[in-house]
Specification:
By secondary structure, the protein is mostly helical. Helix content is 66%, strand content 5%.
């Protein structure tokens, strides 16, 4: 405890770090305030509750309940995330966007500008659908079409404001602004979910509640292990003589291939598709018994049909996203240009094949672990845990929380180490975020 108190003193002794922390808290407070300001013309008492499952439940979780409140920040930062993913995929598929990505700072600025423009259109489309489907007619106190017209404009402005707050947290705060806003939205629901679970257990179930909290702790530790796990491939650099005496290189470095290289993206992609079977079943439920059973099976995230399909989609998306985000051929070419080689492996094509084989071997267990984490909330619900609290036992929320917290710790750690203070962790630096990458 004394060590922790001393570390916090060191943190606030660094003027720049203290200023960045206060700026981050200020931007977060503004973001949370906006999630409680309802759209004009909406009677908040007549709003329909958004469930914890499905795509709407996921969006409501990311926005910190702003979606269910019909607030000006109802869509949060998710349209910007969708636009960013679309642009990222276009940089892989289309040469025009590939060229912009390789044009350095000017190209990146142009891609950012295109992403922002696309965000406006994505927000407008999602906003109109949200106002049309989610908000009941009895909750609208003005002309419905006039409400949808200015409501879309306000939602677009709210999303752009969230995007601006995220960029300010990155520039003036402690970094990872967009991820930080998503994390805050998730964390904001944790106290209410914890109290709801405690009240549902009552005094007679106090021991069971303690067991659940302990189980949650071990689940979080397991998620940290999955996020931090790295397969390091040794890379040796040949010595190069410069002039008559000075030699450069000769050191051994590592290529850190993460067990979960795709991060949380496979779960997000899979979650976005999981509403389709249930939607199709509901559309034809009156005409077919099979459609009715389909709607029932995929309308509840605790059914075995839902979780089997969910697992298969996560496995597929994990392999797909890893394949498009890591290019073994490019890594091998960069190593060859830098005079590096993997001991026992010839440079060039053999190095590329070796890296691809290692990547294939670690992607499967990583995908399986990711699938287990994704379906843990459904397993927890089967044990009688309330759905709000069960959502923190795994899935997208847990992985985002773990990833953002580790990134934030690493940012603070770097400030402390620059000022020669001892880090937050007694064992030293937060590992897994700043491994040496082959040149």
């Amino acid at each position: 405890m004394n060590k922790l108190i001393t570390t916090f003193k060191h943190i606030f002794a660094i003027e720049e770090l203290k200023s960045r922390i206060f700026n981050t808290l200020l931007f977060i407070a503004f973001f949370r305030l906006g999630s409680y300001i309802a759209l004009p013309g909406v009677d908040a008492t007549k709003l329909t509750a958004v469930g914890d499952g499905g795509l709407l439940g996921l969006l409501n979780l990311f926005s910190g309940g702003a979606l269910s409140n019909a607030s000006v920040f109802a869509l949060g930062i998710m349209p910007y995330i969708s636009a960013s993913i679309a642009i990222q995929l276009l940089t892989i598929a289309l040469p025009y966007f590939q060229k912009m990505q390789k044009d350095g700072e000017a190209g990146r600025k142009k891609l950012n500008q295109i992403t922002r423009v696309l965000t406006i259109f994505v927000t407008a489309a999602q906003g109109f659908t949200y106002l049309q489907v989610t908000i009941p007619a009895e909750a609208i106190m003005v002309d419905p079409w006039f409400f949808r017209l200015y409501g879309v404009a306000i939602l677009v402005g709210g999303t752009m404001m969230c995007m601006w707050l995220g960029e300010k947290i990155t520039d003036k705060g402690i970094g990872n602004g967009i991820s930080m806003l998503i994390m805050i939205g998730i964390v904001s629901r944790f106290p209410a979910s914890l109290l709801q679970e405690a009240s549902s257990r009552g005094m007679s179930g106090a021991l069971l509640f303690i067991v659940e909290v302990i189980a949650l702790f071990f689940v979080v530790m397991g998620a940290i292990m999955v996020v931090q796990a790295v397969r390091r491939i040794p890379v040796q650099y040949a010595k190069q003589v410069v002039g008559s005496k000075l030699s450069v290189g000769g050191e051994r470095q590592y290529i850190p291939l993460k067990l979960n290289a795709s991060g949380v993206m496979p779960i997000i992609f899979a979650q976005a598709l999981m509403f389709i079977p249930g939607l199709l079943g509901q559309s034809f439920a009156d005409k077919s018994e099979f459609a009715a059973s389909l709607a029932q099976a995929f309308g509840d995230f605790t059914t075995w049909q839902y979780n089997v399909l969910f697992t298969v989609l996560i496995l597929l998306f994990t392999f797909f996203y890893t394949a498009i985000s890591i290019n073994p051929t490019q890594i091998a070419d960069d190593m060859k240009r830098g005079g590096g080689f993997i001991p026992g492996v010839k440079p060039g094509e053999e190095t590329s094949n070796f890296i691809a084989r290692v990547l294939d071997h670690i992607t499967l267990p990583g995908a399986l672990m990711l699938s287990i984490i994704a379906i843990l909330p459904a397993i927890a619900s089967l044990f009688g845990i309330t759905r709000g609290f069960a959502s923190f036992f795994g899935g997208t929320s847990l992985l985002i929380l773990v990833g953002v917290v580790l990134d934030t710790l690493q940012q603070i750690e770097s400030y402390l180490l620059m000022r020669k203070y001892e880090g937050l962790m007694q064992s030293g630096r937060v590992r897994g975020r700043s491994e040496v990458v082959a040149r």
